[in-house]
């Protein structure tokens, strides 16, 4: 493997979720023929904590910091048990974990972190490593959930809406589906009977022609991307509902949900309930978030 080949970076903190995320990322790294980099950094204690809560959080951080070598070794051993030949490196940094992962994303293929459910209140009031990294990373970010490892039996599902972020999400979804040998399902959310531009007499709109035009646009976009990954079996559909509902409705037969984000800040994401935030709150399978 070339020395400059971008690795998959995983944030680890000793929790079962982070070790499971590292094992999932390792399986993907093997498929992508790249290295795995396990990164530990200082956890965030959040904001607006009471004095006692802050003291407890600080004590937990101190213990975790003292045990960092053991935490990284445990994660590396779990990964090596699955993939003995995989190239694995470890690193510990004395900076907040969101800053560390965002910086690492500049030279990474993917950033992966285990994630509990993220609520708007958490994102707005105390901050969220998951939301911060997903918002500001320079490469796709995978928030790992669930129990199963990557396989070729379930689909990669991607949301698409013709924006630059969605185009990047589509390209990355094809890439991952190709390396996993999985089918790809492209979902375009387009609530019917909603004009794509202002009109003065809505009841005179030829809705069938408009829908046919949308199907044509979607087919062109998917086919262009498919030419780069001809081995991927891709299907696409239009869903007459919101993007989050359309994607979550496909999660039962999906191994990964992929979505683009426009890079909104944490407060905006929490207040507006974006598609990315909805998936972070409700998905029980890994979610890949791609910026523009």
UniProtKB/TrEMBL annotation:
Signal peptide location: none
Pfam family, one: Usp
InterPro entries tied to this protein: Rossmann-like_a/b/a_fold, Universal_stress_UspA, UspA
Lineage: superkingdom: Bacteria
Similarity-based family: Belongs to the universal stress protein A family.
Protein name in UniProt: Universal stress protein/MSMEI_3859
Residue ranges occupied by any UspA domain in the UniProt entry: 7-144, 155-290
């Amino acid at each position: 493997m070339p020395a400059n080949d971008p690795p998959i970076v995983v944030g680890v903190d000793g929790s079962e979720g982070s070790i499971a995320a590292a094992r999932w990322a390792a399986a993907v790294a093997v498929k992508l023929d790249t290295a795995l980099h396990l990164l530990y950094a200082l956890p965030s204690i959040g904001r607006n904590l009471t004095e006692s809560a802050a003291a407890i959080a600080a004590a937990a951080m101190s213990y975790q910091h003292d045990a960092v070598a053991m935490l990284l070794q445990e994660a590396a051993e779990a990964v090596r048990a699955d993939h003995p030949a995989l190239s694995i490196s470890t690193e510990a940094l004395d900076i907040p974990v969101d800053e560390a992962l965002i910086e690492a994303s500049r030279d990474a293929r993917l950033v992966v972190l285990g994630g509990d459910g993220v609520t708007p209140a958490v994102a707005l009031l105390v901050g969220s490593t998951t939301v911060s990294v997903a918002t500001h990373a320079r490469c796709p970010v995978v928030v790992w959930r669930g129990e199963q490892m990557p396989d070729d039996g379930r689909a990669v599902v991607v949301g698409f809406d013709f924006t630059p972020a969605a185009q990047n999400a589509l390209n990355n979804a094809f890439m991952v589906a190709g390396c996993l040998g999985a089918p790809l399902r492209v979902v375009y959310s387009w609530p019917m009977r909603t004009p794509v531009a202002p009109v003065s007499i809505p009841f005179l709109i030829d809705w069938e022609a408009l829908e046919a035009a949308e199907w044509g646009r979607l087919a062109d976009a998917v086919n262009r991307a498919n030419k780069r990954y001809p081995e991927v079996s891709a299907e696409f559909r239009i869903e007459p509902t919101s993007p989050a509902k359309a994607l979550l409705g496909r999660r039962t037969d999906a191994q990964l949900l992929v979505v683009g984000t426009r890079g909104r800040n944490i407060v905006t994401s929490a207040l507006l309930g974006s598609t990315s935030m909805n998936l972070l709150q409700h998905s029980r399978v890994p979610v890949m978030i791609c910026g523009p």
